[in-house]
UniProtKB/TrEMBL annotation:
Belongs to the fasciclin-like AGP family. Residues 200-210 have a biased composition (Basic and acidic residues). This is FAS1 domain-containing protein. Its main location: membrane.
Length: 244
């Protein structure tokens, strides 16, 4: 009888321990599937200090897009989140000088279409593809890392990852001390493609275009003559030097 009581006691003790360990371990993993979908704005609001970023994410609707991507894709998202200090150290009026399209590009430039843990940045190859696009001249984002030190450069701005704001299996948010400005905002745009000929006055337009062909040809002839002459002068110079 005493024996039975004893074993009953140890069994319930074992059960209590088991139950306790399963409940505590189930607290560590991220949100259970039954929880509501991830809302990046809610996460940033909770973290605090991201007022301007939240405003830009909302006005550009990139937040809606990110929430949808998290729901519909398995690749996850990484967001570099400049805090309010980062935005206030921009040149005064800079943000207001951007068009809606540039604001969209700026915010997409802070988003990677994959979930990257802090120690996995060294697996990416430079330039890293952001959601702003992959033009290596204008939209390059280079990331170099060693352990948890992560350096970012856009060619215009250098900064480092200041810490992790949030991470689950899908979404990683890292705080950065500077706004990542793409080179695209600072290098001159390539000349736009020639405008289509207006419908009215098509014939006169054509005439003037035909007329323009011959001077252009003359020009290139003149150019090659110039080059030719230049060559002759260099030759004359070399001969002169040698005959000294
Ligand atoms: C990051 O940049 C700092 C200087 O800004 C440098 O000392 C460090 O070596 C860099 N780290 C990596 C991993 O590139
Ligand atoms: C980024 O990395 C690529 C490849 O290493 C390099 O060619 C490019 O110059 C780098 N750009 C910047 C802005 O550091
Ligand atoms: C960024 O870092 C690179 C190399 O570390 C340096 O050459 C460049 O001048 C820096 N650019 C800015 C804007 O600080």
């Amino acid at each position: 009888m005493v024996m039975m009581k004893h074993s009953f006691f140890s069994l319930s003790l074992l059960l209590i321990i088991l139950f306790h360990s399963t409940t505590t371990s189930s607290q560590t993993p991220a949100p259970s599937p039954s929880s509501s979908p991830t809302d990046i704005i809610r996460i940033l609001k909770k973290a605090g200090g991201f007022t301007t970023l939240i405003r830009l994410l909302t006005t550009t609707q990139v937040s809606t897009q990110i929430n949808a991507q998290l729901l519909n894709s398995n690749n996850g998202i990484t967001l570099f989140a400049p805090n309010d200090n980062a935005f206030s150290s921009l040149k005064p009026g800079f943000l207001n000088s951007l068009s809606d399209q540039q604001k969209d590009e700026l915010i997409q430039f802070h988003v990677l279409p994959t979930f990257v843990t802090i120690t996995n940045f060294d697996t990416l190859s430079n330039p890293v593809r952001t959601q702003a696009g992959d033009d290596p001249e204008r939209l390059a984002l280079n990331i170099t890392s060693s352990g948890s030190q992560v350096n970012l450069t856009t060619g215009v701005v250098n900064t480092t990852v200041g810490g992790s704001v949030y991470s689950d299996h899908q979404l990683a948010i890292y705080q950065v001390d500077k706004v990542l400005l793409p080179r695209d905002f600072f290098v001159p745009k390539p000349p736009p493609p020639p405008a289509p000929a207006p419908l009215k006055g098509k014939d006169s337009k054509k005439k003037s275009e035909d007329g323009a062909v011959s001077p252009a040809g003359d020009n290139s002839d003149a150019m090659s003559l110039k080059k030719h002459m230049h060559g002759i002068w260099v030759f004359v110079g070399v001969v002169a030097v040698f005959s000294l």
